[in-house]
Amino acid sequence: MTRGRIPYPGMDNKTVLDQVERGYRMDKPTNTPDGVYTKMLECWHEKPEQRPTFEHLFVYFDDYFISVEPNYREAE
Q1: Which of 11, 49, 61, 74 could form a disulfide with 15 if both were Cys (CB 3.0 to 4.6 A apart)?
Q2: DSSP labels for 57-74?
Q3: How deeply is 55 buried, as exposed, middle or buried, from its count of CB atoms within 10 A (0-12, 13-18, 19+)?
Q4: Is the pLDDT at 36 greater than 90, yes or no?
Q5: Does residue 16 contact residue 8 with C-beta atoms inside 8 Å?
């Protein structure tokens, strides 16, 4: 989670595109839990059919935020 900062700092758009096409993925942002970064990497899988669905991500992050945020309330 970049917390609103621009991802791939120091790279212009063309460089990011070139690097991503070569398999580069953004390093884990500071303070991002390992499990969340793993999920980010899954979303960036080269093969779209190997990426998690939005439903999967919704369930994952809903469960994640419930487990880490004591005041988190589920959506109604």
Answers
A1: 11
A2: HHHHHHHHHHHH-TT---
A3: exposed
A4: yes
A5: yes
**Residue 45 structure tokens:** 């899988």
Q: What is the pLDDT of residue 66?
A: 83
Q: How far is residue 41's CA from residue 43's CA, in Å, rounded to a whole number? A: 5
**At residue 70, does pLDDT exceed 80?**
no
Tokens, residue 12: 């212009």
What is the 3-class SS of 9-49, one letter each residue? CCCCHHHHHHHHHCCCCCCCCCCCCHHHHHHHHHHCCCCHH
